[in-house]
Amino acid sequence: MVKIIETVYNFLWGDLLTLPLPGGGTLSLSLLVILLIPTGFYFTIRTRFLPIRLFKDMVGALFEKKGDEKSALSVIQTLIVSTATRVGMGNLVGVVAAISAGGAGAVFWMWLTALIGSSTAFIEATLAQIYKEKDPLYGGYRGGPAYYIHRYFEEKTGKQKRYVLISVLFAISGLICWCGISQVVSNSVASAFKNAFHIPPLYTTIVLVALAAIIVLRKNATVKVLDIIVPIMAGCYLLITLFIIITNITQLPGVFSRIFSEAFGLRQVAGGGFGAVLMNGIKRGLFSNEAGSGSAPCAAAAAVSDNPVKVGLTQALGVFIDTLMICSCTAMIMLLTPTSLTKGLVGMDLLQKAMEYHLGTFGVIFIAITLWLFSFSTFIGILFYARSNVAYLFGDNWFSQTAYKVLALVMLFVGGLATYTIVWDLGDVGIGLMTIFNIIMLYPLSRKALIALKNYEKAH
Fold this sequence. Notes:
Radius of gyration: 21 Å
Distance between the termini: 53 Å
GO molecular function, one term: amino acid:sodium symporter activity
Keywords: Cell membrane, Membrane, Symport, Transmembrane, Transmembrane helix, Transport
CATH topology: Amino acid/polyamine transporter I
Low-confidence stretches: none
Number of domains: 1
Strand order of the largest sheet: 1-2
Number of strands: 4
Organism: Anaerobutyricum soehngenii
Number of helices: 21
Helix content: over 70%
Main location: membrane
Subcellular location: Cell membrane
Strand content: under 5%
Shape: globular
């Protein structure tokens, strides 16, 4: 089993194609990068650079009222759910790893990936809205790739179906991914609390699982909790970063100079390091904002809106919030820290050292609590996503819904007590497979989303 997971992981994320670069360097491309980057460019062109043209509409869509349907979610609530899952450990340790491996220039390519990825996010979220359906168990609406792929094949064949193979594969991949992420979440939190407070992982894990169980085993507590946690955690992280930037304002021009010079600099090309700069920025952007993976549409489908395009625009904005705001915060914290202090450190140790430089002991404690909030909200958010996939595979019944939640809680407990590399690979395999099944179908399905966009622009 371990061998199979590792083989699939290497196929999805390993170096599938290697291109030579001037100066003797190489540019290695994985299957997922080969799929996602062209898709992002394609939809950016097809939507006529939507992220730039309609940015005002993205923000305006947040304030749409949901109407009288009490069990349904507003547009901004679904953005909060998707932000909870996008903003996680990748925004902290992942960005640190990208800069460590690719230098400051990786940040620029991370930004560019968000810009083109937001168009993909728009297409998949709009489709989720167009094909959403009533949720008989939780109330409101549900949907996502499993549903819009299913409906596409029904429309194509003119026949009603119980299952569609690609929809089944997507749903299973999602459940595998979210089980893997559950273990990563608890492992990250337990490690951070051990470093900051010297609390044994067992105690941290028990508290984490108990709190999670209280929330996820209640019918509709998930969104209510996220409505509180997500704005607080994102707001506090932004404020702390702004404080660090202001106190180091004289260094800021130098930081931006480093980002742009290393992104395009001849030194990197000549030294054979340009490939590392480019790919570390792109991979971090793709991993973090999840555009194209098909996860955020599971939240987008739950929104009530008078136009599906407004939900698509909101989810496109979510990519910006994740990468241009939260990931950039971590990048600024890192790049405003003297490299001599962080030499030889990696991951969480490196980030905590950087925060200690800026804010003393408070910085170490703050980053541990921030990681806990980011990770905890991710766990709650992925179980919201799982609702739709579980229902697609097993029908509308409380037994299967509860069984998957219990399984996720067990994974959460196991992950906090032991580090298994295979667990990280499992999550990456799941999201990789989700992305392949989703991207393949976005091309034929996108016509409906593009027509909806055209009609929206005519009306506005």
